[in-house]
Amino acid sequence: MPAADVLIAGAGPTGLVLALWLTHFGIRVRIVDKAAEPGTTSRALAVQARTLELYRQMGLAQAVVDRGAKVAGANFWVKGRHRARVSLQGIGEGISEFAFLLIYPQDEHEKLLIARLADLGVHVERNTELIRFTELLRFTEPGKEVNAVLKRDGNTEEGCYCRYIVGCDGARSKVREIIGTGFPGGTYEHFFYVADVEAAGPAINRELNIDLDHADFVVVFPLHDEGHIRLIGTVKERPDCTPADLTFNDVGRRAIEQLKVDVRKVSWFSTYHVHHRVTDHFRKGRAFLAGDAAHIHSPAGGQGMNTGIGDAINLAWKLAAVLQGKADDALLDTYEAERIGFARQLVATTDRVFTAVTSTNRWAKFVRTRLFPLIMPVAVRFAFVRRFLFRTVSQTQIQYRESPLSEGRAGVVLGGDRLPWIRFADGTSNYDTLAEPRWQVHVYGDVDSPLEMACRELGVVFHRFAWQREMSDAGLTEGAMYLLRPDQYVALVEKQGVKELRNYFESRQLRP
């Protein structure tokens, strides 16, 4: 009966990232998926800046950027006329090293993650489905473990003991079904399609192109190869057939024709409903939910896959700390506390955006087709608008201020915030030190020597940066102590003090 510290059900981006980070921390994992092969008909496209910042920890960021397509602008069309263009060039300048919108299809993304995981000696177990699991008392030492039953190749059952199980198994999650945490929400009435095609025309310009017509809806996404695009739009009503019977010939063609998209070849085509749901709990006992198993919403803003990856990294370092005896099991309760609030907020936000984009209401149509093309190009000329848009979409605004792991304040930065990013004159940045997922302390300005010694004793990496004006502009406070978690969030921000640093770990029963 093969054992693992963590059994991961589902080998999409969320499960693969969780497996990759846990393996890096030295945790034994098994990752299973009932599909015979990796997905080839994925819908997720955008890789946000926050994901790329975290991907630097595994040396993945540059590989994703090199394989992806940077998008310089977004174009808006109404009734076949190009009404507006919004420049996205450097929209996140000064906020992140990855100050751009990047398109990298999920199927290619998964291949990269699978390859990196294989380099570490971990392989996805295909044709392997989770059937059931139970918690049981361990006989070798006090505590509990999970006894899972897997089915291979559709018939052979196999047992697997593990310390924890994580459901990354999508909207129809077996793990969620077993633990009974529910999946409240709903389904939009609209039916959508996604297609990868080779095409030509004015909208095949390596930028986003969006048709805002009330009678039809389509978005053109550029892919890496010249002339290759992804189309997402509405499907025409066909009451005489099932979704599985639909083909590209059944999609709404008016918007495609108005954008003057000349489709030469359809590589693949799929239809889907869009849901908006969040489970009631991300944890129950030794079972956890992450990604689409925990929350699912409209594709507005390209948030879904990135949110799942954020779940995985948040959970990974905490599982590793508990399994390695560096933290009490209570640390794992902070996973739900930190991630469920953002998931609920995201579902509500994307629901409003999605409804506005697809509504046939007269006022919504007027705003979408008349006001928006006029106002948006003007609004994005203002720096504060561009910063707001980038922070919202890029997920760099995610914070955990209400978390039990967050403490202190210095200036505008509070415990739980993402550390402000700063580019130095020599081309380096303060994020260069975050490449390794470890606890560390940053001090910007002069430092007290007892603090540096205390960091060495505790096993916390210490970095001091000479004070520069740009640090103040970014929101940092001269001489303050910033304790950073392994996932790059500020755990404690305080005046330099050995007592405060020690108390942070002792009060939470944590060891770096």
Description:
Its cofactor is FAD. GO terms for molecular function: FAD binding; pentachlorophenol monooxygenase activity. It holds the Pfam family FAD_binding_3. It comes from Caulifigura coniformis. Keywords: FAD, Flavoprotein, Monooxygenase, Oxidoreductase. The chain is of the alpha+beta class and 512 residues long. Among the domains are: 182 residues, FAD/NAD(P)-binding domain (3-Layer(bba) Sandwich), CATH 3.50.50.60; 101 residues, 3-Layer(aba) Sandwich (Glutaredoxin). It is 30% helix and 29% strand. It contains 13 helices and 24 strands. It has an 8-stranded mixed beta sheet. Strands 1, 2, 8, 9, 10, 16 and 17 form a 7-stranded mixed beta sheet that branches. A 6-stranded mixed beta sheet has the order 20-19-24-23-21-22, covered by helices on one side. Helix 1 runs parallel beside helix 4, helix 1 packs parallel to helix 7 and helix 2 crosses helix 3. The mean pLDDT is 90.
Tally the helices: what do you get?
A: 13
Examine the secondary-structure arrangement and name the CATH architecture of the domain at 3-39 and 106-182 and 279-346. Answer: 3-Layer(bba) Sandwich
For the secondary structure, the number of strands is 24
- Determine the N-to-C terminus distance: 33 Å
* Proportion of residues in helical segments: 25-40%
Q: Look at the structure and give the mean pLDDT.
A: 90
Return the CATH class of the domain at 3-39 and 106-182 and 279-346: Alpha Beta
The biggest sheet, with number of strands, parallel, antiparallel or mixed sense and barrel status, is:
8 strands, mixed
Query: How many whole angstroms does the radius of gyration measure?
Result: 24 Å
What overall form do the CA principal axes indicate? Answer: globular
Find the CATH topology of the domain at 3-39 and 106-182 and 279-346: FAD/NAD(P)-binding domain
Structural class: alpha+beta
CATH superfamily of the domain at 3-39 and 106-182 and 279-346: FAD/NAD(P)-binding domain
Strand residues, percent: 25-35%
Low-confidence sequence ranges: none
Sheet with most strands: strand arrangement:
6-5-12-13-14-11-15-18
Protein name: Pentachlorophenol 4-monooxygenase
GO molecular function: FAD binding; pentachlorophenol monooxygenase activity
Organism: Caulifigura coniformis
Pfam families: FAD_binding_3
